[in-house]
Amino acid sequence: MNKPRGIVTTASDEKGRDTVYSLLGEDLPWVAPVGRLDKASEGLLLLTNDSEWAARVTAPETHLDKTYHVQIGKIADEALLLALKDGVRTKEGETLHVKRASLLRQGERNSWLEIVLDEGKNRHIRRMLEVLDIEVLRLIRVAIGPTALGELAKGGVRALTGEERLGLDRAMRQRNC
Questions:
Q1: pLDDT tens-digit profile of 63-114?
Q2: Is 170 left (phi over 0), alpha (psi -120 to 50) or beta?
Q3: Which of 65, 149, 159, 177 is the most buried (most CB within 10 A)?
């Protein structure tokens, strides 16, 4: 699924907000999200009816790469990229870091970064940038392991190909070695 901004990743919402299930057809078997994207985030969200496979994809020990494109309200520099890689300490005392961070492009007032996490904690990227006093304008997950969002339209849903499923399984096995 290409989850749009404003949709919550849950089966039902006590506040009456639209959920990812509002984007699914009635004819699909039961599926559940594999991991989460917060309401303000968008992009690749896997869904499955295989709870054991979902647990392996999201397990911290698999360290499956998750790639994000992040628009920030600042011109990025090497010091920022280094700070993200070295890690920042949150006000809760937790140190968060990224696996990789690079500059994709920049304008006069903002930049697009590519950030790769190999573990994902709740609001990981947003919390890091908040500590650095940097506004997140957009956050889009573009890949999970070797599976990329590609050209799937916002709100669109499609089945994984057999090759994509095998690629994810292979990536998880390699990370567990």
A1: 899 999 999 999 999 999 999 999 999 988 999 999 999 999 999 999 999 9
A2: alpha
A3: 149
d(CA 119, CA 1): 21
Token pair in block for residue 44: 């690749």
Do 152 and 144 contact (CB within 8 A), yes or no? no
Tell me how far apart the alpha carbons of residues 27 and 52 are, in angstroms, rounded to a whole number. 23
* Residue 110: CA count within 13 A, CB half-sphere: 11
In the numeric block, the tokens 């994509």 are attached to 164
In terms of Cβ atoms closer than 10 Å to its own Cβ (0-12, 13-18, 19+), residue 91 is exposed
CA dihedral 17, 21, 23, 29 (to 10 degrees): -170
Look up 38 and say whether it is catalytic. yes
d(CA 72, CA 106): 9
Task: Report the C-alpha gap between 172 and 99 in whole angstroms.
Answer: 16
Exactly one of 38, 50, 77, 86 is catalytic; which is it?
A: 38
Q: Which helix (H) or strand (E) holds 72?
A: strand 66-72
